[in-house]
Amino acid sequence: MSHTLRLTLRTLCYPLKTDLLKLAPVSSPQTCRYLYAKATIGIDAFREQQKQTKSQMLNIEAKFRERMKGFAAEDSSSMIFTEDLKNMVHIAETDEDFDLVVKMAKKFNGQNKQLRFGNFVFGPVVMRMLHVFNKPDLALECFKSPELEGLFDQLITYQILLDLLYENDKYQEMLEVFDLVKGKQLQGAKYPRNAVVLVMAGCYKLNSKEGTEYALNLWNELMAAGHFPMRRATTFCAGLALNQGKPEVALEILGAVKNPNYVTIRNLKVRALSEIGRVEDAIVLLKSVIATDQPGEVTQTFNKEVMECVKAAVDKLENPDLTLEYNKVEKLFEKEGHISDLTLDSHLCSEIQQPPIMNNRQINKFSRFRDNTRNTGDSGYNRPQRRPGLKEMV
Fold first, then answer.
1. Torsion-angle region of residue 81: left (phi > 0), alpha (psi -120 to 50) or beta?
2. What is the DSSP letter of 352?
3. Residue ranges of region Disordered (predicted)?
4. Quick one: CA dihedral 268, 218, 158, 369, positive or negative?
5. Which of 58, 203, 221, 322 could disulfide-link 215, Cβ–Cβ 3.0 to 4.6 Å?
6. Hey, what's the torsion of the CAs at 284, 298, 250, 200, to 10 degrees?
7. Looking at residue 76, what DSSP letter applies?
8. Using one digit for the tens of pLDDT, what is the confidence trace for 181-228?
9. How do 339-340 and 302-303 pair as beta strands?
10. pLDDT of 5 strictly over 50
11. How far apart are CA 312 and CA 306, in angstroms?
12. What number is the average pLDDT over the span 15-36?
């Protein structure tokens, strides 16, 4: 990490004083609720399994529930087998059912420490059940339960839980979960890439001093460990720095991105450059899309609010030549469709459609665990056909 970034992070409590911040207001944090598409975390596949299981148990479902209540009772000597818990998870639909699933899971987890019947991993499946029925508090309670220790120790399970908390605006709880995740260092990964994306998104949504400190401390840890965050984690962190009046920090963070051509990267850089008064550099970046524009390709764009930020910075300088140059660029952009009406916030929070490709060797070593385990019978993850977020390259 550069010396400049270390210095800027130390001055976090002293926000940059600039009138330009008033001209680039923070977008509503409710612009987009969903971050990961349901298919990417196995929700769609879980729903299909639900339908199949309920169809198979149509005539015995009520009796099965009653039997499981007896098996799960504390004074019962009956064991909970893999198929019992698997079926109960997929037919559960009421609070009473969820309570029964948790009781069964606790008993199964306790007996499974000594007797290993099969290798079906329940963490992701139980967490998907709670995600489908939107039970964030119960999911968090289960994750922290000592009686369920080890049941939820899978990278995908962390992702499902954090995604559920994100969708329910439980951003502070996301930070608590991530601290626990770091402590586990599952499969040698202290900073699971998808979990990092989600916790950075949580910090971005918090948009507070505390959330910013957490995000920047995490960024420092990642850099010190030689971990290169995914682009979405980087843009959330940089966007948060901008919203908290730290454009110089945002620029340092964006400097870690290898491919600067993504729409979010370009927009964040232009806004940051404008806010620190480097308007000429911002205009050069604007003009770069004209030089690289090719017939037949998708037009590269800048957000309207970012263009307004540049214009405000230009007007403040009262430089006729610079004003003329910007006006020419703006006119050309309007003519050729280089200005997008989408907000920067909507770009940052746009839904991730495909599972991320993990470039970290340490993660790839355990790629067979990407869908939680071998032979789980759970097809929640499909192999990605392209890089996630490629649609953002406009």
1. beta
2. B
3. 368-394
4. positive
5. 203
6. 180
7. -
8. 999 988 778 899 999 999 999 999 999 999 999 999 999 999 999 998
9. parallel
10. no
11. 10
12. 44
